[in-house]
Amino acid sequence: MVALQVARNLIGGAANKEIGAVIVSQQDKPSPDSVMPEGAMAVSVIGLGKLGAPLAAVASSKGHRVVGVDLSASAVAAVNAGIAPVDEPGLQDLIDRSKGRLTATTDIAQAVVDTEITLIIVPTPTGPDGRFINDHVLSAIRAIGEGLKRKQTYHCVVVTSTVMPGSTGGVIAETLARASGRVVGRDVGLCYSPEFIALGTVVRDMLNPDMHLIGECDPRAGAMLEKLLASCVDRKVPARRMNLINAEITKIAVNTFVTTKITYANMLGELCEHLAGADADVVTGALGMDTRIGGKYLKAATGYGGPCFPRDNVAFATLARGLGARADLAEATDRMNHHQIDRLTATVARHARPGATVAVLGLSYKPDTEVVEASQGVMLAQALVRAGYKVMVHDPKAMATARRSLADAVHYAATPAQCAAAAEVLVVTTGWPQFAALRAEDFKPAPARSVAIDCWRVLDADRLAPVCDIVVPGRGDDHIDPAATKRVAA
Ligand SMILES: NC(=O)c1ccc[n+]([C@@H]2O[C@H](COP(=O)([O-])OP(=O)(O)OC[C@H]3O[C@@H](n4cnc5c(N)ncnc54)[C@H](O)[C@@H]3O)[C@@H](O)[C@H]2O)c1
């Protein structure tokens, strides 16, 4: 019956208001053996992956003593050797600056005993019904419970992994209460606090977030986390403190809103492509000036991909449908995003017949990462192979990860120039700045004339003009018959 000890204010209750200074009791004092600067905390971070490793390193670089925990012995060994366990710009530098304050272990319980606040950043994969699966989080929570049994003092547990709204105050709180024998919200704090980061800029995003989102089951936990987060940034950052479920909803609402905005720009792009003289860049440039709209993520380019946007949007729709609420907008966004691959394949087909060589430049879902989850480049390469094209691919970082999906269906080019030399059509699907270095000499010599579909406007159009027709998504001057525009728009 320990589960019933979960404090009543977990679901829907608690703080939608500003909360005062941190309450520091005798119990909160760090153990005498830990020599830390004033205000520094003892923090454990469970999960040293793409998000957890940077978070642990950010906290330790800011003076906190951090114990990283992972099931992977190699990740733990890397951290203990002072080596970044994942590839992320700026991470190694932070670890170097941590000066021994960052250690790692595979023992969650001991890490909990040795620290005062624990952040959980383990995977929450998407299940077949579109919901996030909490198994890894719950397994971490059970081990945390074991650690809590071995200490007397208050401890704050923070879920940073993306979870379905209702999880933290529901199954996670119940599991924590059962595993620790403590009353959640009184003897152990519980928060939900996601990060809003993009791979490739995780360190920069963590040091300069727009806000700290803190869902809390009790004010003491929220204040403790707010203090930690406020000390881990490069400038003052507003905190939004609220109950657990509002924070969980906010996390997927932010991503769903952004995916809707990206999709709007792509919808606009498709419209413009059908109107002679139209240019989506000109339209979105003006649209973004309206402060109600804003210019970020408003570019007619490729669809969105990566480990968060697509699945958060699907989870939002699944949740709404499951509750009997309308999910039309999220569902339409998902459908329109899948449509972007068909649209790009059709653009290729206007310039080359099946059997021709088409190069896909960019396999990572965004620049500066090797991650190819739901990547537009990989999906386009697959669609082009299905359509009968010979496909070449290149990516500065993601060749090995893409190979797991593309296997030997495509030819892997060592450089962008190799792609330019061989392909009749070249498609830039990721805005890697390296692709800007392509020169006219890299392309097929005259009389051949290549086509480059530059989804992210990275190519030097003036330099390539002598050898290459540059096609930009959202421009109506590519294939439009002005008479048709007149007929429909008149
Ligand atoms: N990667 C992103 O861009 C991003 C952005 C926002 C939110 N998130 C969310 O953050 C969470 C983590 O994502 P990630 O990309 O860092 O995952 P990841 O797969 O890169 O890393 C997860 C790490 O957790 C470890 N792990 C798994 N179970 C464990 C356990 N029980 N105990 C200890 N370690 C364990 C794994 O070994 C791995 O090293 C997910 O919920 C994800 O949705 C990720």
Could you walk me through the main structural features you see in this protein, from its secondary elements to its overall organization?
It is a single chain. The protein is α/β, with parallel strands linked by helices and 490 residues long. The protein has helices at 52-61, 73-80, 91-97, 108-113, 135-149, 168-180, 202-207, 219-230, 244-273, 280-287, 309-322, 328-349, 376-386, 399-406, 416-422, 461-464, 482-489; strands spanning 42-46, 65-69, 102-105, 117-120, 155-159, 188-192, 212-216, 239-242, 357-361, 390-394, 411-412, 425-428, 450-454, 468-471. The strands form two sheets. Strands 3-2-1-4-5-6-7-8 form an eight-stranded mixed sheet, sandwiched between helices. Helix 9 crosses helix 11.
Strand content: 5-15%
| Gross morphology | elongated
Q: Biggest β-sheet: count, sense, barrel?
A: 8 strands, mixed
Bound compounds: nicotinamide-adenine-dinucleotide
CATH topology of the domain at 2-17 and 38-242: Rossmann fold
What is the radius of gyration computed over CA atoms, rounded to a whole number of angstroms? Answer: 25 Å
Structural class computed from helices and strand pairing: alpha/beta
- N-to-C CA distance: 72 Å
Output the CATH class name of the domain at 2-17 and 38-242.
Answer: Alpha Beta
Low-confidence segments = 1-34
Strand order of the largest sheet: 3-2-1-4-5-6-7-8
Q: What does the average pLDDT come to?
A: 91
Helix content: 25-40%
